[in-house]
């Protein structure tokens, strides 16, 4: 992971906006894995346990995700104080590859035994366990979008890592780092809160928050401009399949007195929809109308609206936009 200047990977997601109950979030695979020991004698023993309990590659890949998310914690101290890059010398390509493998093996073992890591450790352990079960898995490095300040950024940076796993001839997107929890800025500590939504995530949602360094791993039609200028979506958006139809850009140009139109799929009048003004006071949406399986409404861009506007549904943040005054 690059030095401190990189964006906090997922660390400013609001504590209130991510919580839901264990029973609501977990599949049968997760419930079985939750009863596993927190420690195994080796990664091979853990892989054997998963292979014995689950017969399909999909369930095994999910079990790896669940066990890591339940048991490996994000090392926030290491994130703030990253170790120096480990260099080495070599006299041949074979020796170079051996030393790279040794460094990676050490990272995997450290993550597995210490039960803490940053994203490199999470992804390396996930890939290792998948390989023990004969499941093809890649580590992808790239940019992540986690703050309103990321809306409209000019460039991407390599500040995060995730996995892609091949199951039933289809590459599945996996971010187990984000599946294990989040940083609670009000308490100054990490909070363990298992989230299943970053296993086999819908690419439309995943690539709204991730952009790979290599074009080899781009989704269909994904562009750097779309990523940088798109709106910021949140965990609950993915969990409840709230599709942001309008505006289609995360940057809204408006002048005072304009009414900005929003349309969000899978929301209805039975939901409480509001936004926060620049004094962080909730403003309830009054003019919403149901349209095409969603809700359409307008917000008046007046002096009470700040630089960013975040839409909430039933107390959960759903989407944020940046507003530029004309």
Automatic annotation (TrEMBL):
InterPro entries hit by this protein: CAP/Cytokinesis_protein, Papain-like_cys_pep_sf, Transglutaminase-like
GO cellular component: cytoplasm
Signal peptide: 1-25
SMART domains xref list: TGc
Pfam families (alphabetical): Transglut_core
Annotated Transglutaminase-like domain residues: 111-178
The entry's keywords: Signal
Taxonomic superkingdom: Bacteria
The keyword Transferase is assigned to this record: no
Protein name per UniProt: Transglutaminase
């Amino acid at each position: 992971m690059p030095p401190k200047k990189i964006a906090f990977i997922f660390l400013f997601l609001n504590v209130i906006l991510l919580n839901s109950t264990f029973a609501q979030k977990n599949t049968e695979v997760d419930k079985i894995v939750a009863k596993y020991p927190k420690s195994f004698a080796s990664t091979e023993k853990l892989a054997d346990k998963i292979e014995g309990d689950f017969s399909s590659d999909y369930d095994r890949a999910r079990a790896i995700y669940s066990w890591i998310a339940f048991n490996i914690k994000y090392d926030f101290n290491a994130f703030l104080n990253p170790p120096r890059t480990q260099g080495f010398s070599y006299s041949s390509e074979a020796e170079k590859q051996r030393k790279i493998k040794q460094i990676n093996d050490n990272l995997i073992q450290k993550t597995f035994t210490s039960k803490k890591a940053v994203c490199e450790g999470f992804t390396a352990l996930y890939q290792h366990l998948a390989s023990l079960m004969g499941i093809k898995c890649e580590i992808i490095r790239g940019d992540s979008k986690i703050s309103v300040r990321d809306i409209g950024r000019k460039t991407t940076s390599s500040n995060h890592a995730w996995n892609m796993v091949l199951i039933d001839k289809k590459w599945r997107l996996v971010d187990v780092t984000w599946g294990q929890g989040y940083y609670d800025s009000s308490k100054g500590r990490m909070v363990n809160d298992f989230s299943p939504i970053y296993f086999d995530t819908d690419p439309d949602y995943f690539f709204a928050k991730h952009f790979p360094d290599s074009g080899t791993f781009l989704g269909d039609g994904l562009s750097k401009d779309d990523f940088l200028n798109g709106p910021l979506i949140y965990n609950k958006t993915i969990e409840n399949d709230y599709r942001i139809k309008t505006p289609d850009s995360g940057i809204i140009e408006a002048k005072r007195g304009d009414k900005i139109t929003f349309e969000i799929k899978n929301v209805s009048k039975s939901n409480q929809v509001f936004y926060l003004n620049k004094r962080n006071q909730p403003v309830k949406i009054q003019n919403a109308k149901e349209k095409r399986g969603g809700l359409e409404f307008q917000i008046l861009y007046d002096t009470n609206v700040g630089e960013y506007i975040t839409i909430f549904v039933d107390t959960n943040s759903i989407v944020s936009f940046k507003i530029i005054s004309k």
